[in-house]
Design goal:
single chain, about 300 residues, alpha+beta, four-stranded mixed sheet, four-stranded antiparallel sheet, 9 helices, about 35% helix
Length: about 300
């Protein structure tokens, strides 16, 4: 009888613990022990794994990233691609690497002068005169000596352009020169805008007054006259080119010839003597040439005698 009681107690105790476990862990959910074992396995696998940062690790099973390069296509002005042009654009040896001597104000960024910002449009007339002076400074030794000894602001800028092409300070200097002869328009954002639209003669007559094309000496025969001795300078000269450039030498000879005329002073009956001397550069106004006439550069004389010098 005692043996049966012991069996009953053990069975009852086993059923008790079984019911207690079933209360803590229902049949449909995993047990706490199984979760703990899976976490331990995951931790061990992560410790044994090899770091594969951006595909630089040694794990061969890791997925390698495919490197792709997105090349930006060059813009083209043609509707259809041209193989010849594509070849020129894709080859550095066939592409021009020369920088522009000076960029137009339409393609440059605003320039700061002190506390103000400036942007200048339509600088073609100014740039054309400056480039021409810079080329003469480089090609002609005598003109180089003339520019080196001159204090004219435009000539100094041309010298700076010839020595240091397209430096940032050049564009600041260009704005400081142009703003003296053009009006400034201030916008909403305190950005001052200058429209430098004009003809070439406007640039020459306003900026080359101290470096003229000719100087005229006027002397009156009467010593007590107000026109006793005067010097007048002209940034440009006007020649009577009636037909073609082949008559340029004769027109220059007539321009520098000594002339006589009556003194304009009403209290003087003297005679005025006028002599013109051409300077180191000559800018000729071509307004007197008819619009319907066309000339070629071959018609322009290679050599001209000025002041008895070639």
């Amino acid at each position: 009888m005692k043996k049966k009681k012991i069996i009953i107690q053990s069975v009852a105790k086993e059923n008790y613990y079984r019911d207690e476990i079933s209360i803590i862990s229902p049949k449909n959910e995993p047990s706490i022990c199984s979760d703990t074992r899976s976490d331990i396995n995951d931790s061990n696998s992560s410790l044994n794994a090899i770091e594969n940062w951006h595909g630089q690790g040694k794990d061969q099973n890791a997925i390698q990233q495919i490197k792709t390069t997105n090349r930006k296509k060059r813009p083209t002005k043609y509707m259809d691609s041209m193989p010849e042009i594509d070849k020129l654009l894709s080859s550095r040896n066939l592409r021009s690497n020369l920088n522009s001597l000076i960029l137009n104000g339409n393609t440059t960024t605003p320039v700061r002068l002190g506390k103000d910002k400036y942007i200048v449009y339509n600088t073609c007339p100014f740039d054309s005169v400056v480039v021409m002076l810079s080329m003469a400074y480089i090609d002609i030794p005598s003109y180089k000596c003339f520019v080196d000894g001159n204090d004219n602001e435009l000539l100094k800028f041309s010298k700076q352009l010839a020595n240091n092409s397209s430096f940032r300070s050049l564009y600041n200097t260009r704005v400081s020169i142009i703003r003296k002869i053009f009006n400034e328009d201030e916008g909403i954002t305190n950005l001052k805008v200058i429209d430098a639209r004009c003809n070439v003669m406007f640039i020459i007559t306003n900026l080359l007054k101290t470096a003229p094309s000719s100087i005229e000496d006027i002397v009156c025969s009467k010593m007590d006259c107000t026109y006793t001795k005067r010097h007048t300078s002209s940034p440009t000269i006007i020649l009577g080119l009636r037909h073609e450039f082949s008559t340029l030498q004769n027109a220059i000879n007539q321009y520098v010839d000594k002339t006589y005329y009556e003194c304009p002073d009403i209290n003087c009956d003297g005679l005025i003597t006028s002599i013109r001397y051409l300077q180191n550069h000559i800018f000729i106004e071509a307004d007197s040439i008819a619009d319907d006439q066309q000339f070629s550069l071959h018609d322009f004389p290679v050599e001209i005698c000025v002041n008895s010098e070639m």
